[in-house]
Amino acid sequence: MTYFKLITLLSLYILVACAPNARQEQTTQKDYTQFVKPLVGTLGEGNTYPGAQVPFGMVQLSPDTEKWQWGAASGYEYSDSTIYGFSMTHLHGTGIPDMGDILFMPTVGQTHIRPGKKDFSEPGYLSKFSHENETAEVGYYSVVLDDYNIKTELTSTNRAGMMRYTFPASDSAHVVLDLSHVLRFDVVWSNVQVINETTIAGMHQVKGWAKERYVYFTAEFSRPFDAARIFSGGKEVKYDSYKTYRFRSSKEAAGPDIQLVADYQTSEAEQLSVKVGISPISTANAMKNLKAEMPDWDFEKYVSVSKNLWNKELAKFEVEGTQNQKETFYTAAYHAFMSPTTYFDVDRNYRGLDQNIHECKDFDNYTVFSLWDTYRATHPLFCLTQADRNANMINAMLAHYQQSPDKLLPIWSFWNNETWCMIGYHAVPVIVDAYFKGVQGVDWELAYEACVNSATHPEYDATAEYEQLGYVPYDLENESVSKTLEYAYDDYCIARFAKALGEEADYKRFSKRALAYKNLFDKEIGWMRPKDSKGQWMADFDTHHFEHLGAFTEGTTWQYTWTVPHDVKGLVELYGSKETMANKLDSVFAYSSGKDYKGVDDIHGRIGEYWHGNEPSHHVTHLYAYVGQPWKTQQLTRHIIDTQYGNEPGSLCGNDDCGQMSAWYIFNAMGFYPVCPGSDEYVITSPAIPSVTMTLSNGNKLVIDTENYSDKNVYVQSVMINGVEWNKSWFSFNDIKEGGHIHFVLGDTPNKEWASAEEHYPPSMSTSKL
Amino acid sequence: MTYFKLITLLSLYILVACAPNARQEQTTQKDYTQFVKPLVGTLGEGNTYPGAQVPFGMVQLSPDTEKWQWGAASGYEYSDSTIYGFSMTHLHGTGIPDMGDILFMPTVGQTHIRPGKKDFSEPGYLSKFSHENETAEVGYYSVVLDDYNIKTELTSTNRAGMMRYTFPASDSAHVVLDLSHVLRFDVVWSNVQVINETTIAGMHQVKGWAKERYVYFTAEFSRPFDAARIFSGGKEVKYDSYKTYRFRSSKEAAGPDIQLVADYQTSEAEQLSVKVGISPISTANAMKNLKAEMPDWDFEKYVSVSKNLWNKELAKFEVEGTQNQKETFYTAAYHAFMSPTTYFDVDRNYRGLDQNIHECKDFDNYTVFSLWDTYRATHPLFCLTQADRNANMINAMLAHYQQSPDKLLPIWSFWNNETWCMIGYHAVPVIVDAYFKGVQGVDWELAYEACVNSATHPEYDATAEYEQLGYVPYDLENESVSKTLEYAYDDYCIARFAKALGEEADYKRFSKRALAYKNLFDKEIGWMRPKDSKGQWMADFDTHHFEHLGAFTEGTTWQYTWTVPHDVKGLVELYGSKETMANKLDSVFAYSSGKDYKGVDDIHGRIGEYWHGNEPSHHVTHLYAYVGQPWKTQQLTRHIIDTQYGNEPGSLCGNDDCGQMSAWYIFNAMGFYPVCPGSDEYVITSPAIPSVTMTLSNGNKLVIDTENYSDKNVYVQSVMINGVEWNKSWFSFNDIKEGGHIHFVLGDTPNKEWASAEEHYPPSMSTSKL
């Protein structure tokens, strides 16, 4: 490094550290939303949706092109050519469908209350559309419904959405509300009321992935409908003295199969808007939300408000790079800041896990906790850029815990439901990571109690047998190896938390549990291997058997053996040497079984047996830093970013999983990754963008920049942090929590000297160092 | 009358009028509850229930012996010999089943989650019982379940109930909660949670007669259960790694078919109690209700509280007579004061017709409005003895009106539902009657608006055609004659209300409508007759055709022709003379078609074509007062009371209809009846008890006594009111509103001179006298 360079860098560091306000003002004037491509991830298995949502917003107003297919969990699949309508809620990037609540569809001509078939073998309200007539921007979506020549535009606030329809001239224009629509699952009940000639309200209850979910809405139409017809079970709800015997109101109905059709006569290019507030509590609250957030009909204003909200979030990153790099990065940030979603009404009430109405007086409540995914990088990212939100999210988890009849932290929860999806108790690393990263505003005593109780529930997923035997036996429990490994990691987090709080007995108990992974490592074969309750290894063990007799979760031992993020040194010891382990790691990336396993068709992004499309692999490339070969990490994360991320609809190789795939990108694009949330380590890799300045939650800036950045220069030659030469393959939260400057020098060949000496390895968390 | 007698009567009058407090103190120390026989009406068509309820209480905790039969609408039928269990809610005396929510059943031995069959062809939790081991008292019910040798005792507060089970020694004792149980209809959803080892909570949603009804509960057990097992769809809800794949909590479940079984080991004669709070809002509110009303386990205390509450209501009547008379009277009072029922939680919130949660800040909310029945005598009785409650009930109707998407007053509503059962808009006479009887605490302007809107809804039951044509045409509308007649009466009430409020245009409009009955009176045959929209009488008209082509409601023209309570003089004019009308009336009582019509099997109590078992006949005997033959009224009401009321399970000849049959009794037993609520007239008849002192809502006493009372002395010889000889066949509300004294002299032959002169007829409400 030249003297001039050093001075320049130091100057920049001082500028950044001392003038955050001036800089912030400058950056927030830029329009970062232009770089966001909401269609990224809509083709294939990303399972994203292209509609309108504010950051972490309760409403996700988006077109549904698919209703039944498991693989189109967000309701939108880019390869589709028909649209069912526009519904108010969607899940971002999950592997299981649900939501798609409160579907509206504008039509002209004959009234249809059924969607019909996508191949038009049965007529219905659905319509063809073309991507040529489709626009997806931050806070704005539009499409032309070809069957009706109706342009539909969408925008949203936190708890409300607005649809603007541009109709052709028609004496039979309609807006169809189909309360029986939900993605994949069943509406068990619904109701609707016509409140006046511009207002309707109602609800539906869904028995879906979430077993009991209630969505209420109130909708206002920009001009009075000529008529509003309600249908129940396919028949119009209307009094007929002879047929219905007793009076029936035409203004209300309830049942599992309810539609409402608002009728209009429209002139050419007439615009009609519908704004909809939603609530998990009541139509009255939906109306409160609507009135508070969307008081008028200024569509453009709400688009602008949404863009401003997003710009504020996106401005946390000032990226320099190509258009493609910026689009990839800001789209990833957009996707990372969609979930968890706001889950309380403007009066601060929400429906809790116990189905009772609770007030979140002291925190903002959130829901959609895909924790098996998001503990890895999403919440650690929030620790850096969204610390207050992360505190609120943790408070939401603690409220869930208190409302849970089992006194368990959320596993995979959304709205007022626990789905029990996936394994482990990964609210724990989210909590512990936040605790050690100085997140404020959480009752840590309560959080600690919740962590311990969640890890020791007598009936939950064989945690009792796990503690007794030191592992989960495959003859007694499904997914036994994955559970053992993930429990051990979660327990490491609890042990660390216990030590910090002075809970010595718990510290010892969970430190012991944290080493459980050792009991399933078969040194003979060098893989984690299922063991039965008598201590016998599983016979006929096939390392390529997907979910081997239920011993692995969405993978094989090739992915899962590496799930020891908290004690990589211990894993190295099990292998006998770092070289042995490095060779084993090499084999993961080099060897492919060639099998296309049943059940893994949504996991792509494979490099050998490294499956980037699913989370168990997400920290595996970074383990080279623990065996003295950090250049392999550098090459691999750059390779993954080059090949498996981008700015196209098909650019995500697996479910975005509520932002985890995107958060992985953001970290690695910036040149570091939290291999072990709950610790304070980040492993350094090679940045995938020339430069980024990240504004931390405290307002300070972390500047990351590179020298010699190019597509080919994927190897780190040297690193300087805050003006100091940095030879370690990692840095800690403390090193960056006040902001600062990380400077990378890159090159096209590995610098095998850099950070490869044992003293430069990440310390890892062998239990003695807890 | 001797001088001595006069002095005695005057002294009594002065005593009563001047010393109400002393008298009240004295009377409330008496135990009137001893005379109440809750089993009255449980055999046959009375459709009462024998369980525990406080006056107008939200909880009706009672055994269900029947679940499916239409005819056992209250869930209990005396002729049954099996019990399903004990549920928290019941409808009193209705013709249609619903409720039976939240059923608990104690058992021993094998676990049953299904009731089984009453003939034991399928085993289940239901049990044989015998009336020998059954006790039904005010606020207390007990029965021995023979299959299990378990004594069950019930008591209740307003919003909570307690069950005390006395078990035999058993190592497999159970308390079964079957959330799928409801009378007759479908549970569409339910959920349950085990909160701790003594507390459970949950809800079920019923699609019943009421289309969308939500009942929440929280239940506490007096000692911890050994286990609580939840069943869904017939299977125990329990995690099994291999069978359920993902974790399932054993502490909660949701679905349409949920049971919970609490397991115990019991010692001989061990008592276990369960107390249950209910709420239309949430389990949290059910808990609030329970904690507020039933804080401890003192079963006897709550029985005592219930008896005291009832005694306070029953003490409004100080009856002298035989044991049978007292039992009949106080049981009737008991039945009259069960409905409408309290419908708000202790925090004053309730679920409204719009399914939103509303607070009743300024009134006590009530529900169960069987208005086609209760406008006749029940609410007029409340005007005398329960004026404040009646005001609250009217306020509840106005809240319903405001929440109604149709802006209609209740027709037949319960909980948060309008059932649209029966015809007319009979909240109107309830409101107008209360207005003219000085009930305080109602927004009468709002009430007036509600009355007018309810009478002029453009879609409701052909009221538009009715106004246009002057009658409801039978070719366009079902129940056309009944509707015409009842609308005309309701419209008379509105006209009167309009005049009082100075609404002249409405006064004219509704005065004209009040005469609509004339358009359907066929002078040729002397009966009301269906007419079509072209003005043609129905051809081939059979006066005995039940519900003739849908022209009559639960009757024939023999009952319905008399539905002109507001203008009997006008009806006399149509007949041409009072003698002609009297002869026609005579024929009603003398002639019987002998037909047992389909659909009328629950209407008994027939005297010719007078059907006391249903409401359209209820004022018919009193019409003799309008044609100069009051002795016929006297003889008939005494005859009806002698033959169709009593103190036995079979003593009610038709549905008690939320107290209307019982209120009819109370009025007539006291010697007067409100033929035309909304007017202030009461027609005098012959008292059926020797003496009664009624405490009015204002605390004043109305003393009614008789001379020469005997079974045979059914004819009024003379009447004295407040010491003044009374020759009119009627008196007005003003005559008694401050209390007073009505003295009857009775004899065994008609005194045809008394009140038979034209100037002594009730004035009737020919429209010129509105």
UniProtKB/TrEMBL annotation, chains A, B:
This is GH92 family glycosyl hydrolase. Its EC number is 3.2.1.-. PANTHER family: PEPTIDE N-GLYCANASE PNGASE -RELATED (PTHR12143), SECRETED PROTEIN (PTHR12143:SF39). Residues 285-748 form the Glycosyl hydrolase family domain. One of its GO terms (cellular component) is cytosol. One of its GO terms (molecular function) is peptide-N4-(N-acetyl-beta-glucosaminyl)asparagine amidase activity. Its cofactor is Ca(2+). InterPro entries: 6-hairpin_glycosidase_sf, GH-type_carb-bd, GH92_a_mannosidase_put, GH92_N, Glyco_hydro_92, PNGase. Pfam families: Glyco_hydro_92, Glyco_hydro_92N. GO terms for biological process: carbohydrate metabolic process; glycoprotein catabolic process. Gene3D superfamilies: 2.70.98.10, alpha-1,2-mannosidase (1.20.1050.60), alpha-1,2-mannosidases domains (1.20.1610.10), GH92 mannosidase domain (3.30.2080.10). Keywords: Calcium, Glycosidase, Hydrolase, Signal. It is an enzyme of class 3 (hydrolase). The keyword Hydrolase applies. Residues 1-22 form the signal peptide.
